[in-house]
C-alpha cells in the first residue's frame, strides 16, 4: 500500500473508551492512522478478486469465490440469495437480497457480521478464499438478527479461538439463538470502545433500534468505512458490482425505490432512533457506508444520508398524491380513477392509484413514506373497513407514519362506515391533517358524488400548492416534540 505502519507495542486488541480518553492522541497514540488507499482505490477492478488457486481450503460445495476487495485490507465476503420469495417471511423480493459480511485482513483478522444460513456455502467459500489459511481472530457482531448471525455458530466452530465483539445485549442474544455457552466467547463493548487489529481500528457506535435494540455500528479509522448494520440497506441481490455508484445515478428511482422500501418496512418504525444514529454518523469522517444489505455507498453518501434524515423525521420526499383504493365491484375504484383524473386536470403530475388488495403492503408503506398526500378510498365491508385497507392503515400506524395530509372516500350500498373508521385510525398518528370533505358513495359515482370528488381534487391540489385558503384543511392530531438527537431517552418501540 506504500505506507509504513508502526503499531505501539501492546496496542493490538480491545480498548475501552475510558482507556482511550486517557491517551493524548486517542487511537493515533496507538499508531492507527488513515490509509490513503493508494494502489487499491475503493472498488478496484476484477483483479482484486482472489484467484481460485489461492484457496487453501474447500469448506463447502459453493466452489468459487465472489469476494471483492473494497478498501485496503478490507473485503466483501457476503452472498446473495436470489431464491428467497419473502424477506422476513413478509416482504416480497423481486430481485433477491444480499447479505453483506466484511473481512479485515490485518495483523489480527476481523470478520464483521456473518450472513443468513441459506447462502452460507458461498459465504464460507468467499471467506476461506480471502483468508488463504489464516484464522479469524475477532467476529464483530453489529446486529444479531439471524439474517446476519445465523452463520455465527459455524464461524465460531471453525475458528475456536475467535472472540465475538458485540454489545452486552447482543451477547445475551448469542446465548438465546445458539448455545448459552457461546456467550463465554463474547466480549461486550460500548460506545467509544475500539478494536485495534493493526493498521485498522474499529470504533463502536451504539445504534439501538436500528433496527433491533442490540445494534451497533463499527467505524474503521484507517479507511473511513462505516459498517452500518441495517442502516442504508437496500433490497436486491448484488451482481458482482459492490458499489452503489456502479448501478446508475443515485436518484434513479429504480434504486431508490428499494432503498426506500427497505427503510420504510424494516427500519421505518424507529425514526427517532435513526435520527440519533445519524447525528453520531455526522460526527465521523465517513468515506463509505457499508450496510448489511445491498450496495456499499462510496460516493453520493449525502444522497443516502439525506434520504435517511428525511425518512427518519417522517418528512415526505415528494409533493405527491398516493390514492390507496379498496374496491369490490368497481364503484370505489371508479371514484379513485375519477379523483386521479381530476387531480391531473388540476395540474398535479405526481399522482398514483394503488389497489390495496393487489399491491403488496410493503410497496404501499414505502409509497406512504414518499408521498405528502394520501387518499384512503374504501368500500364498507362487514360494516367496517375493507380488510386489505384495514391492514394497510394498521401497518402504517405500526410504522409510526406521521406528518401527512390525508383524505377519505367511502362506499356503502345500504350503509357506509369506512370513512369515519379510517379517520379515527389515522387521527391516532401524530401531526395529521385532513384535506377536503370525505366523499361518501352509494354503490357508484352519482352526479352528486362526482361533484364532491371534483371538489376534493380541488382541495388536494390547493393543499399541494400551499394554497391553504382553498385546501379546506382540518387538523386531526398534533405533532410530536422534536427529537433530541443527543438524548438516549426511550421512545415508542
Ligand atoms: Fe438485516 Fe435487522 O436484519
Short description:
By secondary structure, the chain is α/β, with parallel strands linked by helices.
Annotation keywords:
493 residues, alpha/beta, seven-stranded mixed sheet, 14 helices, 30% helix, elongated, binds MU-OXO-diiron
Please tell me about this protein's structure.
The structure is a single chain. By secondary structure, this protein is an alpha/beta fold. The protein is built from 14 helices and 25 strands. The strands form five sheets. Strands 18, 19, 20, 21, 22, 23, 24 and 25 form an eight-stranded mixed sheet that branches. Strands 2-3-8-9-10-11-12 form a seven-stranded mixed sheet. Helix 7 (271-282) packs antiparallel against helix 8 (301-312). Residues 38-47 and 49-58 have low confidence and may be disordered. It binds MU-OXO-diiron.
Most strands sheet: 8 strands, mixed
Please compute the radius of gyration using only Cα atoms.
25 Å
- Low-confidence residue ranges: 38-47, 49-58
Small molecules in complex: MU-OXO-diiron
What does the average pLDDT come to?
92
Number of strands: 25
Sequence-ordered SSE layout with sheet pairings:
Elements: E1 13-15, H1 17-21, E2 68-71, E3 74-76, E4 79-81, E5 86-87, E6 91-92, E7 97-99, E8 102-105, E9 109-112, H2 120-131, E10 138-140, H3 146-149, H4 152-158, E11 163-166, H5 168-177, E12 186-188, E13 194-196, E14 201-206, E15 216-220, E16 225-227, H6 253-267, H7 271-282, E17 288-290, H8 301-312, E18 318-326, H9 331-345, E19 351-355, H10 361-370, E20 371-381, E21 384-385, H11 387-398, E22 404-411, H12 418-426, E23 432-435, E24 439-441, H13 447-465, H14 468-471, E25 473-475
Parallel strand pairs: 9-10, 10-11, 11-12, 16-17, 18-19, 18-20, 20-22, 22-23, 22-24
Antiparallel strand pairs: 1-13, 2-3, 3-8, 4-7, 5-6, 8-9, 13-14, 14-15, 15-16, 20-21, 23-25
Helix pairs in contact: 6-10, 7-8, 9-13, 10-11
The structure holds MU-OXO-diiron.
